[in-house]
Design goal:
It is a single chain. The protein is mostly beta strands and about 160 residues long. The protein has one domain. It is about 5% helix and about 45% strand. The strands form two sheets. It has an eight-stranded antiparallel β-barrel. About 25% of the residues are buried. Keywords: Ligase.
């Protein structure tokens, strides 16, 4: 299954994690961006599906919101007894564990629903061989993996 993390310059700069789930895209706004450090928990707020996984440009049309594909690749849900766990079932239970095979982010991550009436989640890196506190790709790798542009360079 495919995933993307889009960098979205709107009123506030934020990132949007998008996961392909069946024939749908499930999306979470991650205000501070993802981290490869397992000690760091990032707020993830569900948002409506808006644009394609690989979209770069101005969205919605006529606005000033700029979007680039910050990272993309495949993801696989964790397995239980040798079988991949159902993404929909895991999300409905409030915990999805998955492995990212991206260009900037790799390894195990999890989305954990906070006991909160506003349906907020935490995005966290699992402690594995890809975990590191020495690198912050949000800062050190700001450009699109598709076009090589910075989000500020997006034009209509």
């Amino acid at each position: 299954m495919r995933f993307s993390i889009q960098k979205h310059e709107a009123i506030d700069l934020h990132y949007v994690l998008r996961l392909e789930v069946g024939d749908q895209i499930r999306s979470w706004a991650v205000p501070r961006g993802p981290s490869p450090d397992p000690r760091v928990k990032r707020l993830a707020i569900p948002v409506e599906e808006s644009c394609a996984l690989d979209f770069e440009g101005i969205y919605p049309p006529g606005s000033t919101d700029k979007i680039i594909v910050w990272d993309t690749g495949e993801y696989t849900p964790f397995e239980l007894d040798g079988e991949p766990m159902s993404v929909e079932e895991s999300l409905s239970e409030g915990k999805l564990e998955f492995t990212l095979h991206g260009q900037k982010l790799q390894g195990g991550f999890q989305l954990l629903r906070i006991d909160d009436p506003d349906e907020r989640w935490l995005l966290m890196k699992n402690s594995d061989e890809k975990a590191t506190s020495r690198r912050n790709p949000v800062v050190s790798q700001p450009l699109s993996v598709v076009s090589g542009r910075d989000v500020s360079e997006v034009k209509e």
